[in-house]
Amino acid sequence: MYGATETTTETREQSKDTIIEVRNASVTFDMNRGRGRVLDDVDLDVYRGETLGIAGESGSGKSMLASALLDAVEDPGMLTGDVTYYPEDGDPIDILELDNSDLQRLRWEEIAMVFQGAMDSFNPTVPIKAHFVDTLEAHNADVEEGLQRARSIMHDLNLDPERILEVDTYQHELSGGQRQRILIALSLILEPELLVLDEPTGALDLLMQRKILKLLHEIKDDYNLTMLIVSHDLPIISAFADRVGVMYAFELVERGDVEDVLYNPSHPYTRSLLRATPDPQTPLDEITTVDGSAPDPVNIPSGCTFHPRCPVAGDRCEIEEPDMVEVDDETEHVASCFYQEEGKEEIPAPVSKESGDFTFEVDDTWSRHPIEDPILELEDVSVRYKDPPLTERTLPDSILERLDERYDIVEPPVHALTDVSLELGEEDVLVLVGESGSGKSTLGRTAIGLEEPTEGSVKYDGYDVQAVERGEHTGEILFEDVRRAMQIIHQDPSAALNPYRTIRSSLSQPLKRWHSDMDLNDRRARIKQMLESTGIRPAEEYMERYPNELSGGEQQRVSIIRAMLIEPNVILSDEVVSALDVSLRVELMNLLLDMQDTFSTSYLFISHNLTNARYFAGKANGRIAVMYLGQIVETGPIDEVLSDPKHPYTKILKWATLPLDPDSARETIIEESPIVTEKSPDPRNPPSGCSFHEACPKAREACTQTRPKLDSDGNQLHRAACFRDDPDHEYWQSEPLHGEEREIPGE
Amino acid sequence: MATDESTIDADDSTVGNDDSPFHARAEYDATPGDVVLELLDIWVFTPARILWNDYRGRFGIILLSLYIAMGTVGTIVVPEPGIGQGDTLMQPFQSLEHPLGTDGLGQDMLGLMVHATPNMFRMIIAGAVFGGVLGIAIGLIAGYEGGTLDKVLMTITDSVGSIPGLPLLLILVALIDPSNPYLVGIILNIQGWTGAARGIRSQTLAIRKKEYVEVSEAMGESKSNILFKDALPELLPMIIFGFLGGATGIIHASVGLYFLGILPFDHLNWGVVLNHAYQQSGALYSLDAAHWLLIPAVVITGMTVAFVMLAQAFDQVFNPRVRARHEARKRNREDPELDDDGTVTSEDTTQVGIQ
């Protein structure tokens, strides 16, 4: 660890010379509702050789600031102010004055940018290599030499340059992590001085995030880069940046060294934001929400923009705009707040220097017994997907089979779920955690009857759901009651609401279906009350709006209300908070938990990260199930699993979760990934034995032979599908698979 | 438990627990009048207002109203055309008696135009409704149900669609000898539904995978409710466009077939006028008879333009963003307290609101 911090402090002290200087940068948009300001008078210096993090929630203007550095603000946005670039040798360049050809030279040759959304950054009809050639040709660079450079960059980024550049490889043949790395390689091909990264790990899985952050950390020194990293994810900035600027409402509100800002946040917004970030180390009760919502660019509050949401705002904040004030004479830590001291008293510091484990406050009320009367029960459920094009084909199966024998045209089915069993009690919470493709969504959807299991059974209240649907239990239970009892809340709230229906119409739907005795006015009254109780006001007005007139958080609240109005007993909440802003996540998880109290529903809560899982299950005395390649590899009460994971995969996931605390975050970021191969196994041909053995640092010969099962004997709640759990297993006598057995950090 | 309805029961809500939002009830009952007003507002008043606010819509409405007036009041006011009403080939805009002049047989051009309109409308309505309903039904069912039904329906659609149009019409006309304008309309649009069905099916395929449709399914909504409330609104622009496109198609097809003399001259039609002008006067070469050709051409074009304009404007009616803006303006009128734009959050902030 200390290697890293030392070199960064060193470079910072060596070179206070500025590489890019931003003064009074503002971006305005003319909207049909008036003039919108999406960047408001921002001053910023980026020093040569440093990594500067720009943190802020979505819509705070951080991406706009990044675009401003390249004078790449899109029309109709108007950028004003000064952006000056200082080359290593030569005269300063005023970027906003450059003509097009000079600007083109500056971009990519001096300042390069890795845009958000690696998934869509390549032209799908053109091989990857052409993107490199085009870039080189556009800048009149030597193509051969450039490609040579690309190969060595790719090598450093742990990519296979032969495969990507020599053969015509297209983007769909590459994984998200590979695309993101190729994008980084592409941005470095003309040897820029400054690299701007906009949410570089946005859509990636936890382990890939860690890998990319580590690689970025390495190439930064190798290629002598200055980096500006824009992210809403505070732990990434904490681990990666030397300095950080926090943006709120299109302005920088606080700026300084990462340690200073995180340990001694001096703007009330920074403090609230840090407290709203579910960090493994923050006690659950200390995670709070930021009240209110971010301002509209057309309607920015006067004075301090944060005053409507600030707990310590005084009269002065409403009128006067605070300047950046030095927090400490010795450092460059500044914050724009009049009442820094009051803020510190009101909002306790969220990040402590003590690095620690996931913490839980367990009390006597926590249940420690197996579920007696499960409301939902899955027994050995497997789901396989056949190739859709083949099932669509009109050939009879007999012919298909014979063709397959000869030409091998039928691909084996995708094993989405394999032999999964789980139980959900009443008022229970089970969090499903796993990377994309681990089958957590399939499991959830099968559990609530939206997909049919290929094998095994799903029982609701003791009745087999499919049998009920076939009408085998007529007279005992109706299928429509089973259907009603299990509902879903989706990840993307804007897609979950019909854009052609007003909020009232969407919310009337469950009432019309299940409360035919209610008339128009009854429905209106209930919807109004529900909206008000979840903080959507004025409800009367919101009822008549269309979904596009609501913010993401409001839309998600409406989705939750709609699910609740159906009055289900089980709700599948599929990544409900991951599309939302950091400060909203805790608020919505709290809303779900409150609803559980009112309603006595059970939740299947899908999450791809452990911090949200810990918060949600930790608050509700719930359990967790960790999934890998269609199987549950470990399950148990959340506190036991997270404080004492048994399965190597759970341990690795836990390792991959970055803490907020900059010291420990930096320590972990340079650690070697314990995972043996980043290649995930093919779900069409899952490996024999334990499906994790190819990547597992602890795998031994025994793991390739038989598949470990989640042992279900007795009353043990915390179970792992791993031979290491059994001290007498033959595993311990067999040879390690991948040479020397590796340690998982933090084990 | 699903069957434990203690929290749901209507009677329950009056006992205790009145604070809970899950038990809220209105203080008074909705009258049938409320419901009717509400429905009228959603389906009639608001769309009409949005159409009228769009210049294309306004133009289309006015133009179409002229044609409707022509087809209804016009037929009463303007006398039926007959041979020898006036001198032959009188020029237009010369006399009040024959404002559009006369043709080579001395028939009043205005009369010829006006009295052809009702049948034109009959053909359009029959043809467009036939094509529209069949296309929507087949497209929706095939797209939503999928599987074998989809394959069967689409095979039929493609087979019908691949029959060459003109020969089919010739044969049908010869077989059926259509004199009923409604029947003519249907025959003219006999293949019109195939395109609509294909298009609607592909849209439905995309819609049925949407999350809100899944929510409706999970809620236990009936299939017809899902089709009509979730799928149809999104398809409406397409349907209306298909409907109005079908209308222009029928206009052109009927004029064309009458012009070619394939359809019997039992009825007045603008195409018949064109045919006579072409066949009998050499209107193509003589300025004297030019109006005989130009007037029906202008009348036909006008009607087509009216439909095209309307179709474009209807896009606005179904666009939720436009509707939202419209509603916001309406709210403003009711509540002048709000600022000029009514809403504080609108599309721009929504886009930045989620990541």
UniProtKB/TrEMBL annotation, chain A:
GO terms for cellular component: plasma membrane. Its main location: membrane. It is found in: Cell membrane. Residues 671-693, 705-747 are annotated as: Disordered. Residues 722-747 have a biased composition (Basic and acidic residues). Signal peptide: none annotated. SUPFAM superfamilies: P-loop containing nucleoside triphosphate hydrolases (SSF52540). This is ABC transporter ATP-binding protein. SMART domains: AAA. The keyword Cell membrane applies. Keywords: ATP-binding, Cell membrane, Membrane, Nucleotide-binding, Transport. It comes from Natronoglomus mannanivorans. One of its GO terms (molecular function) is ATP hydrolysis activity. Residues 22-274, 401-654 form the ABC transporter domain. It is a peripheral membrane protein. The lineage of its organism: Archaea, Methanobacteriati, Methanobacteriota, Stenosarchaea group, Halobacteria. One of its GO terms (biological process) is peptide transport. It holds the Pfam family oligo_HPY.
UniProtKB/TrEMBL annotation, chain B:
It is found in: Cell membrane; Membrane. GO terms for cellular component: plasma membrane. Keywords: Membrane, Transmembrane, Transmembrane helix, Transport. The keyword Amino-acid biosynthesis does not apply. GO terms for biological process: transmembrane transport. PROSITE patterns: ABC_TM1. Residues 1-12 have a biased composition (Acidic residues). Coiled coil: none annotated. The keyword Oxidoreductase does not apply. Residues 117-311 form the ABC transmembrane type-1 domain. Residues 343-355 have a biased composition (Polar residues). The chain crosses the membrane at residues 59-78, 120-144, 156-176, 182-200, 235-260, 289-311. InterPro entries: MetI-like, MetI-like_sf. Residues 1-24, 325-355 are annotated as: Disordered. It is a multi-pass membrane protein. Belongs to the binding-protein-dependent transport system permease family. This is ABC transporter permease.
